[in-house]
Amino acid sequence: xxxxxxxxxxxxxxxxxxxxxxxxxxxxxxxxxxxxxxxxxxxxxxxxxxxxxxxxxxxxxxxxxxxxxxxxxxxxxxxxxxxxxxxxxxxxxxxxxxxxxxxxxxxxxxxxxxxxxxxxxxxxxxxxxxxxxxxxxxxxxxxxxxxxxxxxxxxxxxxxxxxxxxxxxxxxxxxxxxxxxxxxxxxxxxxxxxxxxxxxxxxxxxxxxxxxxxxxxxxxxxxxxxxxxxxxxxxxxxxxxxxxxxxxxxxxxxxxxxxxxxxxxxxxxxxxxxxxxxxxxxxxxxxxxxxxxxxxxxxxxxxxxxxxxxxxxxxxxxxxxxxxxxxxxxxxxxxxxxxxxxxxxxxxxxxxxxxxxxxxxxxxxxxxxxxxxxxxxxxxxxxxxxxxxxxxxxxxxxxxxxxxxxxxxxxxxxxxxxxxxxxxxxxxxxxxxxxxxxxxxxxxxxxxxxxxxxxxxxxxxxxxxxxxxxxxxxxxxxxxxxxxxxxxx
Length: 489
Known about the structure:
Elements: E1 9-14, H1 21-38, E2 43-44, H2 52-64, E3 69-74, H3 80-90, E4 94-99, H4 114-127, E5 139-140, H5 142-162, E6 165-170, H6 185-189, E7 193-197, H7 199-208, H8 215-226, H9 236-253, E8 259-263, H10 270-274, H11 279-287, E9 292-293, H12 298-311, E10 315-322, H13 326-332, E11 344-349, E12 362-365, H14 367-370, E13 379-385, E14 389-398, E15 404-414, E16 423-428, H15 432-441, E17 448-452, H16 457-466, E18 471-473
Parallel strand pairs: 1-2, 1-3, 3-4, 4-5, 6-7, 6-8, 8-9, 13-16, 15-18
Antiparallel strand pairs: 10-11, 10-17, 11-16, 12-13, 14-15, 14-17, 15-16
């Protein structure tokens, strides 16, 4: 995936002038050594920051090294003003953590009091309105601190990515489809750029790609990917032409930004004018790290992109769609998996999930559209059951009054045949029924949710917090009541 940033983390030790600087320097060296042993390279800032001029030197060293994320490490109590100014002026994601004491044999000159200093650091960050990542328990040994830095990585990578992201959309949302409508103002607050276009602009560009010499090579790649599922070979040249149209548009319109995601149109007029549906192409680009959401879902595209950056893997966008029938639950889930029927549901979309995330795939028609339109114009869905395994369902959304809300819930896709159509899977999330009512419905989330293939709830939750989202829903365990849940029910 070449649509997400490479992270280069720097670690800068800080020291209060009435404590030995060597304590902080040596502890920083130990953390860096532990990190390199377990995870890879990290830049050690040579200057240990004790006063404001040292902060300037450290900033210059970090910038010279190309660092785009920073760990401020309190090896001892730490200097409140220089350490927080370092975070303020760095200009990228910053984490604070502190050193635990090492041995009972050295609690005089070898005592750093960073446990205490971390409190003052947090207070000073708040005074200066600086938002920094602070781990769940931010004080530890060298090895524990190395693990904390690892947990910071997906948060930092996402923060870096969003400040260089442009979401490109085509067309207003379909008629009578207000579900994914949300103010774009909060995109700018997150540092994300947005370019809104008409689907007519897209159609003109598609027409200009007629006869593009690259089309045969893209068709061959599609044939290779589809294999025996290539049931609509006649539509592949048109889909290849559309894929090239999107990729060329992205390159021509990214402007000053490095990364892109797309919120695309797919109905009601798309299929009659283009002569196909774009689902398969959407999935192919998403697998390359360029999420393409359906139905001009701008915050869906944003959510998918966040999931791509965090998981560094293909994601998908699905409807939280339909219940699992009682006979299917009784025959294939009860007694085999630890879920009630209300914990299960089917996640579905017409055919936008990438081939690599389907058990087997087949090119088909969009069945719902085919009920009212000629079959020829609805070709282009990639259908099949989604691969079983761990998942995280999540979404970042702006409310109508431009407040950010989000949710995340971990669960799994069960290895149960869906017996249905589209890209679809049987999902199970603990306490899903209550989560559905008291988070998804209560807080007015739309039916689209992003899916990351793995358990990434911790990183997603930390990322949403770092981005300033105050209202983050999750599936409460049994016995823990939601604020809106009837205590007598």
